[in-house]
Amino acid sequence: MTRLSAVPAAAGGGDLHARVRVARANGFVLDVTVRVAGGTTMAVLGPNGSGKTTLLRALAGLQPIGTGRISVGGVTLDDSAEGIFVPVQRRGVGMVFQDYLLFGHLSARDNIAFALRCRGVPRAEARAAAGVWLARFGLAEFAGRRPGALSGGQAQRVALARALAAEPRLLLLDEPLAALDASTRLAVRADLRRHLTGFAGPSVLVTHDPIEAMVLADDIVIVEAGRMVQQGPPAEVARRPRTDYVARLVGLNLYRGEADAGRVRLAGGGLLTIADTAISGRVLAALRPSAVVLGVDEPHGSARNTLMGRVTGLELLGDRARAAVDAAPPVLADVTPAALADLRLEPGMIVWASFKATDIETYPDSVDDALAGDDALAGEAAAGRCMNIRSRG
Amino acid sequence: MPVPLAVAGGAATGFLLLPLAALLVRAPWRNLPALLATPAVGEALRLSLLTTTIATALSLLAGVPLAWLLARSSFPGRRLLRAVITVPLVLPPVVGGVALLLAFGRRGVLGQYLDAWFGITLPFTTAGVVVAEAFVAMPFLVVTVEGALRSTDRRFEEAAATLGASRLVTFRRVTLPMIAPSLAAGGVLCWARALGEFGATITFAGNYPGTTQTMPLAVYLALETDPDAAIALSVVLLAVAVGVLLLLRERWLRPGTTL
Fold this sequence. Notes:
Order of helices and strands of chain B: HHHHHHHHHHHHHH
CATH superfamily of chain B: MetI-like
Strand order of the largest sheet of chain A: 7-8-9-3-10-11
CATH architecture of chain B: Orthogonal Bundle
Low-confidence stretches of chain A: 1-11, 369-393
Largest interface: A-B, 25 and 18 residues
Helix content of chain B: over 70%
Structural class of chain B: mainly alpha
Number of strands of chain A: 21
CATH topology of the largest domain in chain A: Rossmann fold
CATH architecture of the largest domain in chain A: 3-Layer(aba) Sandwich
CATH class of chain B: Mainly Alpha
Helix content of chain A: 25-40%
Oligomer: heterodimer
Radius of gyration of chain B: 21 Å
Distance between the termini of chain B: 30 Å
Number of strands of chain B: 0
Mean pLDDT of chain B: 90
Shape of chain A: elongated
Structural class of chain A: alpha+beta
Distance between the termini of chain A: 52 Å
Strand content of chain A: 25-35%
C-alpha cells in the first residue's frame, strides 16, 4: 500500500472505475462498486453515516481502502492486490469540500492559483491563469478578496474554480451546496450544473438532497449503511424507489409484497389491485401521494383500491397538504387546500382513501440485499413516516 | 461588589503595582540617557540583545519541528516527551544551570567530547549564555506552537494535498500561515523569557562583563556598586516587558484566551 507511483498530471475524459471496501473498527463496512463515465456526474445519495463521505475520501486518497481498486482513465490510483497507492497530492483529483476550505490568508485569485504554483508554474503565470478562471466564474471583481470577505455563493464558486484549475482527472464534490442558504442555492446549483457539464472527466457528487442529485447527476447511487441499495438514472430512481429511504426522499408510498394475477398481497398486511396482470413474485409497488383521493364516505368511483383508516398526521407542503392515513396498508395522500376545507380533515378522523390500479408503479423486488429484503420494514417505515409528519405538523 | 472581595482584591492590586510604581518613582529620569550610555550598561544591553536574538532563532529552528512532531506524528513515548520538554518551564533556573554544567561543562556528559574532539567549550562563554537562555526559553515556543498546530483544522492541509501540494509545500504555504499568530506569540514569549534569564546564565555562563554579563546580571551586580545604573537597567527591562505585553495583548488581554 505504500509503493509510490508517479502519475502524469494530465486532464482527460477517462472513466472512473472503483471498487472500494473500507472496514472500520466499530464494525461498519463500506463496500461499494461504482463506474462513472468521463464527462458525466454520479450522485451518491444516502443518510448520515451511510459511508458516502468515506467513499469520496477513499477516491481522493485521503482514506486508505482495505481492499479494492480505483482507476481513472486506465491509470490505477489504488490497488490493494498490486500494492499500488498513489498519494493524494499526485492523484490529480479535484475536491470541493462542504465548507470549501479556502485558504484564509490567500486572496480568491491566489487560492485558485495554488495548484498551478504547486506544479512549479511561475507566480505571474499562475495568477494570470487564475484570472481566466475568475472571469469564467464571474468572480473577476472579487479577485483580490480574502475568503472571509466573500459571500457563501462566491466562496463556493472559488472552491470549484480552485479544484478545476488543477485540471483534475476526477472531480469530487462533498455536499457542495449544503452550506448555502436557500436563496443562493438555486443560482449556484444552476451554475454548478453548467460547470459539471463542461468538465471532461468523471465527477462524483455526495449529497443528502435528492433534488440536488436529480438536477446535477446523470446517474444516482444510493448508499445505505455502507452498501449500494440502488443505482440508476434520476428519473428511474424517482419513479421506482427500492428502499423506504429512497421512497421517503422522492416522496412516494412504497409497498413490498407478492404479486399474482393483478393483485399484490402486501408483506405488512393489505391487498393492492394493480394494472399489470403479468407480473408475479416479489414486487415493489410505488404510489404517488397526489394520486390518492380522500373522502369521508365510501367511494363508488372507478378507483379499484379503497382503504379505510384514521388520519394520523397532516403536513402543509406549500400548495397542498399531505395526510398520513393509518390503514392497511398505511398511505400518504396529498389533498388540495380546497379539499382539506371541504373534508374538514383533521388528525383522528376516519377517512376513505382511494386510488387507481393504473397509478401504482409495480416492479420486481430483485435486490438480493439484506436491507431491501427485510419485508417487515415496509409497513413499519410507512407508519414511522406518518408519525414524522404528525410531529412536524 | 462584595466588600471583602473588594478589600482583598484591592490589596492584591496594590501589592502587584506598588513595586513597579516605586521603580518608576525612584528612577533617575534626568540621568537616564547618560546612565544607559555608559560602556558597562551599553555592553550588557548589546550582549543581551545579541544572545536573546540568537537563542530565539535557535529555538524557532529546532522548536517548530519539535512542536510539529509532538502535535502531528505518533511515536512511542510522545506523551512522555511532551511532559519532559516542559520541565524547564517549571524547573528553578539555577537547577537548569547546574544541569547544563553537568551536560555541557568541560567535564560534562557531552561537554568532555565537545572539548576533546572539537575544542569547543561552552561554559563561561557568550555561546554558553545562548545555551542557557535557549534551555529555559525554548519550551515556551514549543508549547505555544504545538497548541496552535493541534487546534488547526487539518482538513485545510488535505485540501492543499488534493491541489497537488507536497507535505513540505503544504507546511510552508498553508500550515505556517495558519499558525503565524501563535508562532509570533511563541517567539516573543521565548525572547522575553530569554531576556530575563538570570539563574541558569549565572550558573552556567558566569558573570563576565562583555562576554556573559547580560542585563539581569548587570542589574544584580550594579545594585551593590551603582544603584542608579541598576534602576536605569530595570526601567529598560520593565519597558521591554510592557512592550511584550502590548504585542501579545490580542492573545492575553482578551478574556477567555489562553496559551
